[in-house]
Amino acid sequence: xxxxxxxxxxxxxxxxxxxxxxxxxxxxxxxxxxxxxxxxxxxxxxxxxxxxxxxxxxxxxxxxxxxxxxxxxxxxxxxxxxxxxxxxxxxxxxxxxxxxxxxxxxxxxxxxxxxxxxxxxxxxxxxxxxxxxxxxxxxxxxxxxxxxxxxxxxxxxxxxxxxxxxxxxxxxxxxxxxxxxxxxxxxxxxxxxxxxxxxxxxxxxxxxxxxxxxxxxxxxxxxxxxxxxxxxxxxxxxxxxxxxxxxxxxxxxxxxxxxxxxxxxxxxxxxxxxxxxxxxxxxxxxxxxxxxxxxxxxxxxxxxxxxxxxxxxxxxxxxxxxxxxxxxxxxxxxxxxxxxxxxxxxxxxxxxxxxxxxxxxxxxxxxxxxxxxxxxxxxxxxxxxxxxxxxxxxxxxxxxxxxxxxxxxxxxxxxxxxxxxxxxxxxxxxxxxxxxxxxxxxxxxxxxxxxxxxxxxxxxxxxxxxxxxxxxxxxxxxxxxxxxxxxxxxxxxxxxxxxxxxxxxxxxxxxxxxxxxxxxxxxxxxxxxxxxxxxxxxxxxxxxxxxxxxxxxxxxxxxxxxxxxxxxxxxxxxxxxxxxxxxxxxxxxxxxxxxxxxxxxxxxxxxxxxxxxxxxxxxxxxxxxxxxxxxxxxxxxxxxxxxxxxxxxxxxxxxxxxxxxxxxxxxxxxxxxxxxxxxxxxxxxxxxxxxxxxxxxxxxxxxxxxxxxxxxxxxxxxxxxxxxxxxxxxxxxxxxx
Amino acid sequence: xxxxxxxxxxxxxxxxxxxxxxxxxxxxxxxxxxxxxxxxxxxxxxxxxxxxxxxxxxxxxxxxxxxxxxxxxxxxxxxxxxxxxxxxxxxxxxxxxxxxxxxxxxxxxxxxxxxxxxxxxxxxxxxxxxxxxxxxxxxxxxxxxxxxxxxxxxxxxxxxxxxxxxxxxxxxxxxxxxxxxxxxxxxxx
Lengths: 737, 189
Fold this sequence. Notes:
Chain B: InterPro entries: 4Fe4S_Fe-S-bd, 4Fe4S_Fe_S_CS, ET_IronSulfur_Cluster-Binding. Chain B: This is 4Fe-4S binding protein. Chain B: Keywords: 4Fe-4S, Electron transport, Iron, Iron-sulfur, Metal-binding, Repeat, Transport. Chain A: Keywords: 4Fe-4S, Iron, Iron-sulfur, Metal-binding. The complex is a heterodimer of chains A (737) and B (189). Chain A is of the alpha/beta class and 737 residues long. Chain A is built from 25 helices and 28 strands. Chain B has a five-stranded mixed β-sheet with strand order 6-1-8-7-9. A two-stranded antiparallel sheet of chain B has the order 2-3. Chain B has a two-stranded antiparallel sheet with strand order 4-5. At the A-B interface, strand 3, helix 2, helix 7 and helix 8 of A face helix 1 and helix 5 of B.
């Protein structure tokens, strides 16, 4: 059915988002907790260490964890308020079923699981095994990610499993595999400390990874020069040595021009290029026309600044290049990533102390979650589902004949399109809120409404979950044991601080119960999370993401282990490529030629302004958790349209005036925030909000041809002031229109 | 009462240019139940229309605290460690003299409690040998709590300054502001 059973207002009245505030005197028992649990923040790939204070099976507060090496007690506002997702009035305590006209009512676990099982079987019998699909997410632990991949292939037997990492790091993953044969940041962040030059491109570090700011300042205190590439003066850019305000969608032109400058001025590591790489000549040939003048015309950055950046990068003895979604959320996201890698390889500064490169993984387990097999083309250990040897190995681990292992399925956005076309009829989702996080979400809603059956596992009723026929009350990060892999590639332990409240169940229990009902119980009889991890270790053994040598005890004893770690006596690998043996077939790092091309939608007379989207410091992803935490919402209560005063003047837009933004996908209204800290041709809207406040009503679903990531970061829009002024928070953000 | 675990060698250092405006400090400060979940540290944009720069203001804990001097109810006291404490709840009359007198704009009269509230440098934590909560969590370490030796080793390009000149008046404080190398005073004209 998958239509809203009642008005959004009616559903919101019961299930929120409601804002959770701690009592003024604090939660009872905070000063005398029963336990202080050393675990990690659930928001973002930094996975900062934190201690959760527990009293009577409730999380009642936090205490900084001073010893965890990455953050040493430091936290961002999301981390400080992280514990407020517990004891939340919106928390789902029962499995629910949809009731037309009313909303939802509780249904017992047996009835709920029976209904889900019978619908999966009915849809697959009627339309084929791939007509039932699964969307997963990488805020899940490694154990849950692994389990979802196995569940889809072994219990549901569908090829159509993908995950919300498709909106996150897939461009970086694809680029890294092309260049290095392996998808992980090359260095841990302590290698920033003595890097002479640091480029941060397309990464609003101080808002999306605030605790990483510390390591950048450590480097600057040691004399590092910081180059920030971003269309806005983000907090990190304000004090940077060089800020390159790139026009959205032109990043690869900038990198190409810098590469040509390095080559023209012989700022190259010839020995490294000659002995450890391939593809250099073709890569230089691809950028031979990319003069500084040309780059200035394309990127909108003064050529002198590009030259300064190239000079700094070219002359450095040590360096670190970091990028994130700002260059990856493009129809040429992989090319942008390769453009960055070309700059690193040309100077040979990798695989040595203080010489680093990497994407900054966004989601809580964006790194580990993308390695262990809930991605449509992948099997655990970052194996390839189309590779016969990989298939044979995993089929052996799972105890099934290789031909029964489904093949490559559709990616997340392609899956939505297939649902829209009526080819896919059923959906199970966990840890994914596509109505907020996917582009062009009016189209996504139309697709959801065409589903014959939709079941959602979640702890809060997200905007997407409101469309479900059955909602299975699952577990929070702090309600199950497990591991995650941080943006540095460090595998850390997630601790269960409390058990799921009411009749909610652990996600792994729910998945295993469904698997048993689908007839695969013998393959899903894990006693606990450690048992799942131990099977993951075997499944990853010999793969590029090799966890075989990592055990729970080893993680606990060392506060994390960096993969690859192929044997129990192996210490892990904080820095990759020290032996200059890359994970590619020929053992060399690969240059890849990158020629600039325009984004899929460019401005024209009808849509003359560039629209880009991103994040704010107090919200995480689609906001399912953070839009329910009072102080985080109070900090930034609504999305604002950031616009330069000159552009605002052109349209006679005044401060806080509601502006109608229109693209070829839709229309949405936002109050204007007129600031000089953005390019004059570009407007910015953060995307965390649903319904009428959703920036993704406007964004475009064009995909990168390799990574299949949507082009969130650039499209064309037009602006119209409405003469209406609202106060912050005055217009409620309903979940659906 | 002698509190032996207060580490007198530890000092508080503020480096405004590192502030990223994230408000982790405000959130963490407000976790303290003695504040009634109000933050005693304040982060504000300088002028958002033209810059993303924020300021972070914590109580400077003056050597000769004017807030205490102008208090008609003797509600504000400075202890032997140099910590200027928030208003004594039994004594504060909510007159706002301190609010108007403070050269740094720190004390705030909380109308719902009809009294002044301000930072006491997390006395419950610092007196137990811990760092203040704001400086513990600050992700950029714009707020740093440690020894003078540590800060000079970690930040060789800047100097802590705790002498402020307001017109003809010099105010010396327990809290330091990080300024360009070689600075000795901050003059506010």
